Structure formats: C-alpha cells, structure tokens
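Lab notebook page, bench 4
Experiment: in silico fold of construct C2
Operator: M.H.
Input chain length: 384 residues
Purpose: comparison with the prior construct
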Amino acid sequence: MSAHKNIVVGVDASRNRSGGAKAHLIGLLNKGNPLDHGIRQVHVWAYRSLLDAVPERGWLIKHNPAELEQSLIRQVMWQTLRLPAEVRAAGCDIMLNTDAGTMSSVSPCVTMSRDMLSYEPGEIERYGWSRARLRLILLRHIQNRSLQRADGAVFLTRHAARVIQQSCGMLRRVAFIPHGVGDAFQALTHAQAWPECGTRPIRLLYVSNAAWYKHQWMVICAVGQLREQGINVTLTLVGGGSGPAQQKLRQQMIISDPHQEFVIQKEFVPQADLPGYLAAADIFVFASSCENMPNTLVEAMAAGLPIACSRRGPMPEVLEDAGVFFDPEEPASIADALRKLIDDPDLRKRLAERAKELSARYSWERCARETWSFLADTYKKIND
C-alpha cells in the first residue's frame, strides 16, 4: 500500500462521451496539479480522441484499450471484465469513476454522478412505456448500486445529491464539486447594444439539444405570444436533435412560425464556437426541467447575458438571484419572464452583472483542486 503522499489514482473516463464529460476530464487534467495533494501518478483509461485532447503531464499515464474504440457492448464488457486487472497492474490505490453508470467493480473508488433523468420526479414518465423508459429504469438501478458501493461520491449540485440520495439512500461520504466553465466564456464581455426600436429584432438564444425535458416547443410558443404583442423578437435554437422531441419542436415551429420568420434551429455546434453565439445574443433562455448541472446556463452567465430561466431542478441553486425564473411548461410564464427583461433595461443590466459575478465560482482550477483533494482524503480515510 502506498504512503499517503505517494498515492496512485486511476481514472475511468471510458464513458465520457458528452461534451460536458469530455470538458470535465480535460479541465481536471489541465487545470489541477495532483502532486499538491500527495498524488504522484494518475492513470487514465479513455478512447483515443479524448486522450489526444488532454495535456501531456509528467504524472499522467494514458491507456487506450482497443475495446474503447468499438461498440458499446464491447466497452461495457471491457469495463466489467478487463478494467479491474488493468488497474491492479498499474498499481492504482484508488479509482475515480467519472460516470455512475459504471459496471466496474474496482475498489476503493470515488464515483461521480452526472445523470438526473432517471431520478428527477416526473421526468421518466414523459417517455411512456417505451424502450427509452426501460433504459432509464435500468440505468437508475445501475447508478444506485455504483454509488452505494463507492467509498466516496461526487455530485455536481446539492439538488442532485438530495434527489438521488432519496433513491439510493444516504451515502457515507459526499462532496459537491461543480464543473468549471471555459476561459473563452469567462473572457467574454457582453457589449451587445440593445436594439433601438425598429432597428433590428431582440435576439433570444437557447443552447441545448432537443429532448422532452428541454421544452423548446414551449419557448417557441412563448416567442410567438410576444410577437403577437408587437414585440420584434427572434429565437435561435442551437444543439439540433432527433426523435419525438425534435418532431414536437418542428411541429411547434410550423404552428407558431409558418413562414419561418423568427425561429431558427441550428444543429450541434462545437463548444469552441458557442462564445460567438452568446456574444451575438441579447437574452439567453434556459427552459430545461431536469439537469445535474446546467453547463450551458453557466456559460451564458459567464458571458454576462441577461437570463430567463426555468425554476426547476438545480437552476435556482446555480443562477440564484441573477435571472428571471419561469415555469418551463407554461408558455405564458416564459413570455412573462422574457417581457420583464425586455421592458426593463436596469433589470437586464443588474441581472447580467450579477450572473457574471456568480459565474466566477465555476472555474476548472477549483473543480480540479477539490476533486484531487477529495480523492486523496478519501484514500487517507480508508487507510487511517
């Protein structure tokens, strides 16, 4: 067993496929120094394109098993059958599972919780009796077991910790460590001049893929209501989508904007391009009813935009008093929140400045420091 100042950490990043999960690993390895916490070496298992995106460090060793470039079934089989032996061979003292959906039995370990869709009350019912719903039920069972057997659990928000522990039970050791926000967003100084009457429309922006819990069609309906009130406003939806939620979105576009005058939907946009969209917007809208941590909301906060936001989930915890909140399933509520921002320049300025101020909490430096510290402290507690 290693000395407390000679810890070797393993990181299973094989399931880090979403933009937020990839950004987390890059931030963790790029902005923190595990040596400051008694960790002498870090082994990371991930697929090749993700490993290529993380920095080279003297304390970092990268592993790219062939199975991680193959099908999901092969990935899960590797995680279940092969990873424990690879971790032992690397001499790891403690494992960081970056996804609670892990099938790995490596111990001791710290497990991160990222997914809320299986847990948030009312959300799973949106999927009816479908394959997607059965998948979410199975995922909740897997995540509960993973969190229960872990020596420590990391949650991104207190809301997520509270709701998930109502399902899996109170966990023995918990940390609240939110993601950071990229430097490109923090560097934005939103200086977009508010449109004078008749010069151009007020530009709204909503960044998220189409999903049942994102409620883009409700936002489209709300924007239609504002235009009926004589307010020249447009909406850009960034993130694309597919399946029933995308169909619902397109149907509402046809109803509310049959001539395609004021609603534009963009496909998925690389994170590096998002600052440009934020800089061109006047108001940011976030209508999700289910998040573990709302990354695009924090990015809009860092950009210094006035924000109209859903009051569900962890959004009030993150945005606090820096936005106007609404019910994401009531178009009239969304329209009223937007109208408050549109009609009150002093409110827009005050909330945008407050959002920018709050966003400073969400740095990758802090995230990395607290994560390495929690891993080292958990290992020490086990061995003391």
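Observations: The chain is about 45% helix and 15% strand. The mean pLDDT is 93.
Next step: discuss at group meeting.
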